[in-house]
Amino acid sequence: MMETTLELRHVSFRYGDRAVLDDVDLEIASGEMVGLLGPNGSGKTTLLKIADGLLRPGQGEVHLGDSRLRDIGRREIARRIGWVPQDLEGLFAYSVLEIVSMGRFAHLGPWESETDHDRRIVEESLIATDAQAFRDRYLNELSGGERQRVFLARALAQEPEILLLDEPTSFLDLKHRLEIYALLSKLARERRLSVVAASHDLQLIAQFCDRLVLLRQGRVAAVGAPREVLTPEILGEIFETRVEVEWRDDQPLLVWK
Known about the structure:
Shape: globular
CATH superfamily: P-loop containing nucleotide triphosphate hydrolases
Distance between the termini: 40 Å
Structural class: alpha/beta
CATH topology: Rossmann fold
Radius of gyration: 18 Å
Strand content: 25-35%
CATH class: Alpha Beta
């Protein structure tokens, strides 16, 4: 039986009068890669922010290992959860090495400097994401795919148990989307990281994920292995359009009507 690293229990959340999440139950296991899918406004980003402690649920609880997330300090959360949001444009004034080194902040005291151990972790994170070749360049000098590798390297430098990613391949071409998802899958397998990635790319992410979670209007509409949930009936209900699904080996072919 796989060990659960992150669990959402009956989580609900509202922005003012608007319900965004409604009674969400979800368990993420160690070493598991999970795709979070659904239409715009279905609650994907809000769910990730709650899982990272950036938002507190109106009802329900989030557990990180054996502890309630709300009982854990922000620094401890940053040591255990790597968060890669969509918008990191405020980092354009920094070099790649500086950005990845920021991942060590949670492990340092207020007046502590980086140690040889910290620098080694940064180097390993750059190597793991194939970002060492542009370590001295600035973020605004990089392509979209290179930037995504930098953000991922920064999260890895935190030495987390869990990676949460919000649309990690937005605006990337097919080649770079494949590279990012393949890298995430490799990290889940080799480092036993729990990876949760929100995405609109159903066809591509299904090739790499162990499970998919489909959200509709803030509720979990379906969860299971890709072949179990990527069906015409389920997708048609969630996205409110007809779709044909054909599987070739382990890759789905979706034709929207």
